[in-house]
Structure formats: structure tokens, C-alpha cells
Design brief:
Blueprint (H helix, E strand, L loop, with lengths): L1 E6 L4 H13 L3 E8 L3 H11 L3 E4 L2 H10 L6 E3 H9 L6 E4 L7 H9 L3 E4 L3 H17 L3 E3 L2 H10 L7 E8 L9 H5 L3 H4 L9 H9 L1 H14 L6 E5 L5 E7 L4 E5 L5 H9 L30 H12 L3 H17 L8 H12 L7 H25 L1
The structure holds NADPH dihydro-nicotinamide-adenine-dinucleotide phosphate and magnesium ion (MG).
Length: 387
């Protein structure tokens, strides 16, 4: 029996993880399930999975759950409640599937307890990659990628020496707007941006996929997970999303991991690593797969990818500022305050205004996050006034 806590159980990854556990992992006991506000779904999950406890970030939602549920286990409240669930001493594995900066501190708390981290929340490494990987090393807390590209790389390098890797190539679907001109891009609506061509995901990552910031975050994630320099991490647009990433070795060989675009497979692999266990998950239909295309990403039309590389090379708190500015810009776009093409402007102007330097402590990163959110919000207001 292993005990697994899911941070963000009601989200896209959290729900799929529970499906995978129900189907293939009778050996897993559920520790805590956490949510921000979605207590209706949490109540259903509690009925079905009988966790040890739950944690609810929103106070209002916590009160609602308390009123309506007869659940007998611990019910924790607020961000302190989420932290306590992450740090619960009986957690063997913590699936970090919250979205954005909010996932950083709970993931760190789980690492401090020495739990294995199944990491979906890539923003954790974008914001605090150095701190997280250093503490994970010191505490002996393995970090296993759930993100499909990084799971692919992990699967390609099992049994290999990381020194023999020349570079990795992350594949990107290119998002729904791959073929649009700059003028067309300026008018795309949140409804259009939320229609991802190959993956069904939460709103924030879906917009990040449309701007290619998601791929930029994944470059930073690959840097911290596999210890690769920025120039060893390339990106290729691959619209079919069948090849999840490639690893080029120093002898000229290339390995790739392929599969249908379905997050349940990388979630399952993180739970069985380094073993493989059978599943009934969908198989590639080779008859209907007539071609696999690869093309260079267009950083002129999608500048977020360039901004992410630049922040990675700049180092220090630059990637924490990048993340905070992106969260503000994406929220403003979803609220129809700014155009799709203004998202990268807000992020670049925030990075220019703050000129971030070294920051390795959690406190310093929290301070940069706060400052960057404030600055990015002001820049959003300036753009709103101009339109
Ligand atoms: P969702 O928005 O679908 O779910 C996020 C989860 O976190 C929900 O349970 C949500 O609660 C909870 N949550 C959000 N904000 C807070 C907060 N402030 N405090 C506590 N809990 C919070 O996101 P996804 O599942 O799509 O993504 C989760 C993470 O995984 C992201 O970092 C994303 O980049 C990464 N990822 C996702 C993939 C996917 O296919 N979806 C693929 C690869 C990586 P509530 O339900 O109440 O909102
Ligand atoms: Mg991914």
C-alpha cells in the first residue's frame, strides 16, 4: 500500500489521476484530496475514493462543504490547510496538480517531508527550480514528471547516462492558432483559445499552449528536471501530438516516446516508474496515422517562447517574474481586458521594468512574485486605457 495525496484533485490532471487510480492502482490509498472551490466535485470524489482527509482553499467553499457533507475525516481550510495536507507525514507520493504559483509552497512542503513528487504543476519549477531541485536532492525526494513531454524524456533516458544526452527536443502541438497571421491573432477570442486541437486541459494551461508560453515553461522545466543547458533544449512544432518528445544522444542516435495524446498515460507512468504496468488506455491507430509533421516554431508570431528562453538564460528570479506576469496577463485576457497579442507585451514589459536579480530563498521568490503581479497589473491597466 502506498499513500498518495492529490493537490488539485478537482482539476483536469487531478480528475484523470483518480480515473487512473480507480482503473489500475488498487495498491494506492488516497491521503488528502484538495481543491480551491469545487466542493461539489470534491464531495463526489470523497464518496468514491474514501480519502483520509480533504483540504479546501476557499473559506466559503470550506463552509459549504462543512454544511453539506457528512465526511468524518479531517477537513482542512485555507492555504495553510493545503500546506498541511501536502506535508502530511504519511504521504508516500504527492501529485502536484494545482495550477500556477499557488502550487509552489505545498510542493516544497511535500519535499521537506521526503515524499515522492509526481509533478504536473510545472510553474513550481519555473518559479523556484533551483530551490525545489536542491531541497529535493537534500531530502532524497524524487521528482517524477507528469507533463507529457518530460515523461517522454524520462522514458527515453531510463537506463541511459544523462551525460550521453546531446540535446532534447520538446514537441509542441502549436496550439489552435498555428496558421494565423499577426492580424488574425490580435482578434482571437478566449473561446477560440480555449479550444485546444489535441489536448483537453484546464483554462490557464490551454491559453499558455495557444501563446506557446506553455512550451517556454516546459523548456525551463526540462532544464531543472534533467540538468540540461538552455542550448540543449530545442522545440519543434508537431501538430499531431503523437511524438511526445525526442532525445538525441552523443553517438547520433535518437529516441522518442510516442502515444495518443492522453494524460492518463504519463500519470500512470509516474505511479509505476521505473516499471511498466499494463493498461487498457487507447493505442495508436497506425492505419489512420498517415504522417507525422515537424516544423520550427515561429517566435516572431509567438514571442512567449523567446521570452521564456531569455528568462532561463538570465537566471535568478527572471523566471519567477515571467511566471507571475504570465498569470496576470492570461487572467486579463480571459476577462477580455487585453488582446491575445498583448499577453507577450505585458510579460516583456514586466521583465524590463523589474530587471530581476538573484533570488534563491522562498521569501525572496514570494517577494518577486508579488512585485511582478503588481507591475504586470499596472501594465495591463495602461493597455486597457489605450484601447
Ligand atoms: P485545472 O485548472 O484544471 O485544475 C487546477 C486544480 O488546482 C483544481 O483542483 C483547482 O481547484 C486547484 N487550485 C487552483 N488554484 C488553487 C489555489 N489557489 N489553491 C488551491 N487549489 C487551487 O488545471 P490542470 O489540471 O489543467 O493543470 C494543473 C497543473 O498541471 C498546471 O500546472 C498545468 O500546467 C499542469 N499540466 C496540466 C496538463 C493537463 O493536461 N491539464 C498537462 C501538463 C501539465 P478548483 O477545481 O476549485 O478550481
Ligand atoms: Mg506538456
Amino acid at each position: 500500500m502506498k499513500t498518495l495525496t492529490i493537490l488539485g484533485a478537482t482539476g483536469s490532471i487531478g480528475r484523470q489521476a483518480l480515473d487512473v487510480i480507480a482503473a489500475y492502482h488498487p495498491e494506492i490509498r488516497i491521503g488528502f484530496l484538495t481543491t480551491n472551490t469545487n466542493v461539489e466535485l470534491l464531495a463526489q470524489q470523497v464518496e468514491r475514493f474514501r480519502p483520509y482527509g480533504v483540504a479546501i482553499c476557499s473559506e466559503e467553499a470550506y463552509c459549504q462543504f462543512r454544511r453539506s457533507s457528512s465526511f468524518q475525516g479531517p477537513v482542512l481550510c485555507g492555504s495553510e490547510g493545503i500546506l498541511a495536507a501536502a506535508a502530511w507525514a504519511e504521504n508516500d507520493i504527492v501529485l502536484a496538480a494545482m495550477v500556477g504559483f499557488a502550487g509552489v509552497e505545498p510542493t516544497l512542503a511535500a519535499i521537506e517531508r521526503g515524499a515522492t513528487i509526481a509533478l504536473a504543476n510545472k510553474e513550481t519549477l519555473v518559479v523556484a527550480g533551483e530551490l525545489i531541485t536542491e531541497r529535493a536532492r537534500e531530502r532524497g525526494s524524487p521528482i517524477l514528471a507528469v507533463d507529457s513531454e518530460h515523461s517522454a524524456i524520462l522514458q527515453c533516458i531510463v537506463g541511459e547516462n544523462i551525460e550521453s544526452v546531446e540535446r532534447v527536443i520538446l514537441t509542441a502541438s502549436g496550439g489552435p492558432f498555428r496558421g494565423l497571421s499577426p492580424h488574425e491573432l490580435a482578434c482571437v477570442t478566449p473561446e477560440q483559445a480555449l479550444q485546444h486541437p489535441t489536448w483537453s486541459m484546464g483554462a490557464k494551461i490551454t491559453i499558455d499552449s495557444a501563446t506557446l508560453m506553455n512550451k517556454g515553461f516546459e523548456v525551463i522545466e526540462a532544464h531543472w528536471l534533467f540538468g540540461l543547458a538552455a542550448e540543449q533544449i530545442a522545440v519543434l512544432v508537431h501538430p499531431q501530438s503523437i511524438v511526445h518528445s525526442l532525445v538525441e544522444f552523443r553517438d547520433g542516435s535518437v529516441k522518442a516516446q510516442l502515444g495518443v495524446p492522453d494524460m492518463r498515460l504519463p500519470i500512470h507512468y509516474a505511479l509505476t516508474y521505473p516499471q511498466r504496468q499494463p493498461t487498457e488506455l487507447p493505442r495508436i491507430s497506425w492505419q489512420s496515422l498517415s504522417r507525422l509533421d515537424f516544423e520550427q516554431p515561429d517566435v516572431a508570431r509567438f514571442p512567449c517562447l523567446r521570452l521564456a528562453y531569455e528568462a532561463l538564460v538570465a537566471g535568478g528570479a527572471a523566471t519567477a517574474v515571467l511566471n507571475a506576469a504570465d498569470e496576470i496577463a492570461v487572467a486579463a485576457y480571459l476577462q477580455r481586458q487585453i488582446a491575445f497579442t498583448t499577453i507577450p507585451h505585458v510579460i516583456e514589459q514586466t521583465l524590463d521594468a523589474i530587471a530581476p536579480s538573484e533570488a534563491t530563498s522562498l521569501e525572496a521568490l514570494i517577494e518577486y512574485d508579488r512585485l511582478a503581479r503588481h507591475t504586470a497589473s499596472q501594465i495591463v491597466s495602461q493597455h486597457v486605457q489605450r484601447t
